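Hi R.,

Here are the chain sequences for the assembly we discussed:
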Amino acid sequence: MKISEEKLLWIYTKMLTQRMLEEKILELIPTGKLTGHFHLGIGEEATFIGACAALEDKDYLLPTHRGLGCVIGKGISLNKIMADIYGKATGTTKGKGGVLRICDASLGVLGLSATLGGIFPIAMGAALSSKLLKDARITLAIFGDGQSNRGTFHEALNLASVWELPVVYLCENNHYAISMPQRKAMAIKNIADRAKGYGIPGKVVDGNDALAVYKITLEAVNRAREGKGPSLIEAKTYRWRPHYEGEGATYRDTKEVVAWKKRCPIRRFRKSLIDLKLLDPLQDEKIKERIAQEIDEAVKFAEESPMPRPEDALDDLFSSSIME
Amino acid sequence: MPDVTFVESLRMTLKEEMERDPSLMLIGEDIGRYGGIFGVTKGLLEEFGPHRVRSTPISESAIIGSALGAAMTGIRTVAEIMYVDFTTCAMDQIVNQVAKMRYMSGGKAKIPLVIRTQEGGGRGNAAQHSQSLEALFLHIPGLKIVMPSTPYDARGLLKTAIREENPVMFIEHKLLYATKGFIPDGEFLIPFGQADVKRKGKDVTVIAISYMVTKALRAAERLAEEGVDVEVIDLRTLLPLDFETLLQSIHKTNRVVIVHEGCKRGGIGAEIACNIMEEAFDFLDAPIQRVGALNVPIPYSEPLENAVIPSEEEIATAVKKVLYRT
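And here is the predicted structure of the full complex:
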């Protein structure tokens, strides 16, 4: 498969953006300016960005709670994201949804469910809508290994398969559901193997290899767009950070963490770009400077944005319009 | 139009709305050729095809979740949950997804989704097919709740529900399906938040919903023979609630009985009674009485079931109690 230079640089830039934005959040947490708690995806950039690279603008995405990378990858601006993080009125949800709920249907981002597993059937419904409206959109649902143990996984994948819906279920397997290791949560090695039970393709990919994730997702996306139904992908990766910032994460072996950190998806992708002569250290520095500037501007935008007014809490529950 | 049954009224309304909006989709268990467990969707598969009348496996979360996903991306949807008892299998979808989708997106999502289901006892279906769970949904901000008691109301309210851009719990009662009533020719819609005075009276206000309206009306006829003039108000929608109509009636009667089939403890009667206390305490001449099911699961055997579900006698007794005639 020939991948354009532009696409490769896009993947690299977005992965770096996710990394640098999440590192900025780590800097900001001690200032006490951010409310809420943070599930950072540092170390998993290849999975989130590689998957989003396979989508078109019109496609739908339902992200996971660690998936700040996917909302960046789907095109929500850093200003909006940062405003959501700060709980400001200028964020995508005007302070209602929080950092986990960053969403913008006009960009196809339908939002995640913080009760994990909630997105499986909703993603199926968005795909059903595309099938009925014949709008050639596909839906990508990204979820963690832990979520795959909710009953909705079974209900949704089963029915998505029966109805041949244009949806791709991509598991970001970072091997831990908070403290519960995958090996103790399921008797099988690969979550992708569950696909057999639904009669759909199930593939495992190295989740720290952005190109591999991109290729395998694109294959599933194309299959869905051609009307051949859903797929299940399992990207094996690892979170460098605790489940949420502030947690001890004593349940993981330090050696294991160190070993995975050696497999940094960004360093690996940068090396391949340099080998391909698509990037040199000077360009790399320029890209980083530009992203750092964008992030600083986003922080400034968020800090200068107004908070929602207390009385706004009563707005947005019901639509007042009815169908003509 | 000759009198039609509750089921025929619902079916006719679904059919008309499907003709009116070519994207309107139905989804639920056994709603296709089988026509739904109570026959509400009979014939609709043949008329509108399997894309728009989608029978599902036994997967309530998938029914509600996919209906939500479809509704928020352009497909107006009526989802059917066979028994309200089965909504508990889909509670994450209803409580955390459907009810919160619009609010958590900052008011941007439109959710044209009706969840049709049916509740209530009286058929020996036992505890897992006989509950009345409306109070559960009333407690969750983000859901409108409709509970029709006549074929006329069912038609007018279902039309409104389908044309809403918000999630609506449309809760029917299994004992109402075979009941008949008058429906005028032509289209009519009943707006949400308009209670209906089903019987005018001056002595006591009886507030009821769903099948309990029928029982309250029977109790009222019996009480009339004893010289008690009961006003029966059918709320029709629990949310929005037409509190104004209740107040007008209370200003006249100064006495209130609230009747519902859900358990008395934590039932909608507690909520309504407290609202009345806050807004109209000075107009009350007696403590408000609530009539609800006993606080046990609905039993199977007929004498047990009858003992648990509110009866006309209990309603009549409550009315006499607020009149200090017991």
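The radius of gyration of chain B is 19 Å. Chain B is about 35% helix and 20% strand.

Let me know if anything looks off.

Best,
T.
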